[in-house]
Design brief:
Blueprint: H1 5-8, E1 15-16, E2 20-24, E3 34-38, H2 50-71, E4 75-80, E5 95-100
Antiparallel strand pairs: 1-2, 2-3, 3-5, 4-5
């Protein structure tokens, strides 16, 4: 059995509520990149209970407020990778809240469509 990084590490939560918690990504895409996880081990978004989804959504909103007050980003990408084929590498559900900054890439058009580069500008 593989050790779950999110279950076994003592993560420095910056936000938490009843069923979920948020912390800064150890390998951020941008300054302030946060991960929001259920406290209970769930493999992906589709295993979350209704309460966990509500609590995760509340932390996405609270995380946005924290990032706005700390870093003043110009936008955000929010996303889940569900399954190996979708790029999931840690099999404990986690939502990426990625702040975006003006000029942080040449052409951000297409946003999350960029997970398949040739679809980025479709």
């Amino acid at each position: 059995m593989t050790v779950c990084l999110f279950c076994n590490d003592k993560l420095p939560y910056v936000l938490e509520n009843g069923t979920c918690a948020a912390f800064f990504d150890k390998h951020p895409v941008s300054r302030g990149h946060m991960l929001i996880i259920p406290k209970a081990h769930k493999t992906d978004y589709f295993q979350l209970s209704c309460q966990e989804k509500q609590d995760m959504d509340a932390l996405i909103t609270a995380g946005k407020r924290l990032l706005e007050n700390t870093y003043s980003p110009a936008g955000y990408n929010i996303g889940f990778n569900c399954g190996l084929s979708a790029g999931q590498s840690v099999f404990h559900c986690h939502c990426h809240l990625i702040p975006r900054y003006q000029g942080d890439c040449v052409n951000p058009r297409g946003g999350v469509r960029g997970v398949i580069p040739e679809k980025m500008n479709d």
